[in-house]
Design goal:
AhpD_core, AhpD-like, peroxidase, mainly alpha, Alkylhydroperoxidase AhpD family core domain-containing protein
Length: about 130
């Protein structure tokens, strides 16, 4: 992501960049990739916390750490697990309480853009 593409494709392009990078990583060091995937699969599996709650936690941490790829990935994860936009925005509000202005800037821009794009994409598929 050297240049930021138009707003309409930035979210999808960033998500694809992440997936492509993960694929290349998996091809080059498959033993590490398998262990990483097994670990993250276990972390995000339903347990005492639901998958939905875990995605909201991951989104908050992503915002706090300013990781744009993870912000987009976990915003989609939240939506995929049934979070409403209001639940997502409340979760990012908690992250903003810890992360200050930098977290707020991600919450009011990238998260909302990702929610809008993924919800629009979802409604286009169901039409």
């Amino acid at each position: 992501m050297s240049e930021q593409p138009s707003n309409d494709s930035f979210i999808q392009e960033a998500l694809q960049d992440y997936k492509d990078g993960l694929k290349r990583f998996s091809e080059k060091v498959p033993h590490l990739a398998r262990k990483y995937h097994a670990f993250t699969d276990a972390c995000f599996a339903s347990g005492s916390l639901s998958k939905k709650e875990k995605q909201m936690i991951a989104l908050g941490i992503s915002i706090f750490s300013q990781d744009e790829y993870c912000i987009i990935f976990h915003t989609k994860g939240c939506l995929d697990e049934g979070c409403s936009e209001k639940e997502i925005l409340e979760a990012v509000g908690v992250a903003a309480a810890f992360g200050g202005g930098a977290a707020v800037s991600q919450a009011v821009t990238l998260v909302q853009d990702a929610v809008n794009e993924f919800e629009s994409e979802s409604s286009d598929r169901s039409s």
